[in-house]
Amino acid sequence: MSTPTLEQTQRLLWKLITAPEGAASGLAQLSAAERDLAASLIGGDARLAAIDRVEVYADMYFYRIRDCLKEDFAAVCAVVGEAHFHNLITDYLLAHPPSHFSLRYAGRHLPEYLERYALARQWPCVADLARLEWAIVDVFDAPDVTPIGAAELAAVPQEQWPEVRFQLTPALRVLRLQWPVHTVWQQVQQGEPPADPVPGETTLRVWRQDLRVFHRPVDAAEAAALEAVAHGESFASVCGRVGELLGEAAGAERVAQLLESWFADGLITGCCAGDAQR
Fold first, then answer.
1. Burial 50-68 (b: 16+ CB within 10 A, else e)
2. Mind listing the pLDDT tens digit for each residue in 172-203?
3. Within the chain, which residue ranges are assigned CATH 3.90.930.50?
4. CB neighbours of 123 closer than 8 A, spacing ≥ 6?
5. Separation of alpha carbons 2 and 253, rounded Å
6. Which residues, other chains included, contact 102 with Cβ-Cβ below 8 Å and sequence gap of 6+?
7. Which is nearest to 154 in space by CA: 240, 256, 241, 230?
8. Are the C-beta atoms of 258 and 137 separated by less than 8 Å?
9. What is the mean pLDDT of the chain?
10. Is the Cβ–Cβ distance between 239 and 166 less than 8 Å?
11. 116 — alpha (psi -120 to 50), left (phi > 0) or beta?
């Protein structure tokens, strides 16, 4: 047999280490040529058979991913417990094996997976809790864009205000949930036993400012305004949306308050009026 290339060796070991049912099962699914290659590369001794040596690395591969997901979804783990979380991640990785070289993306499908998972019957809030924790991870790694200040907005001529459009930071997520899971997250952060929340529609704003990620619930007016801004609607349209909820005068006042809050939190990264970009 000719000496295998590095690529051939890496592909073979990858197939064995990541085999969903274990290295022994992965070995059985290899072609005859690949099994011969494995036999030439992997040796055993009186203490440990060749395939058992591979299983050590396969176990390490799984536990490393599980531990990373435990860090990303610490509140989910605290709610369901270590044993249930271990089984959850085992099943999840069978359904969604990592497809990116970075472990940062390994948990991106977990919130949706939890919607259909058996644990959701015992802990109905757990999928929403995973959505919050994934948003925190996602926002932390979002691109850096320098926010603008109120001075840039003050430079817009008054007659152009109705057509002003704002750009939001990419480090922002707005979550529409069925459970107030931010209370559960806070309990876990404080080392308290997580309590079952009372179900209720909840909108959370998750954003990064400097190197910290924050989140808080928002009311219907702020949720509507953020949605309008995200869709590229004009200032007049944003005021109209909020005005439908609060009345015209109260709506305009509320939008002014929201803009002040958004500037303070670094959410606005640009504004334009007509063809002007600021």
1. bbeebbeebeebbeebbeb
2. 999 999 999 999 999 999 999 999 999 999 99
3. 140-277
4. 79, 80, 196
5. 77
6. none
7. 256
8. no
9. 90
10. no
11. alpha
Predicted TM-score (pTM) of the model is 0.87
Residues 6+ apart with CB under 8 A from 96: 109, 110, 113
Residue corresponding to tokens 């290339």: 5
pLDDT at residue 204 tops 90: yes
* Predicted confidence (pLDDT) per residue in 53-101, tens digit: 888 877 788 889 999 999 999 999 999 999 999 999 999 998 998 888 8
- CATH C-level class of 140-277: alpha beta
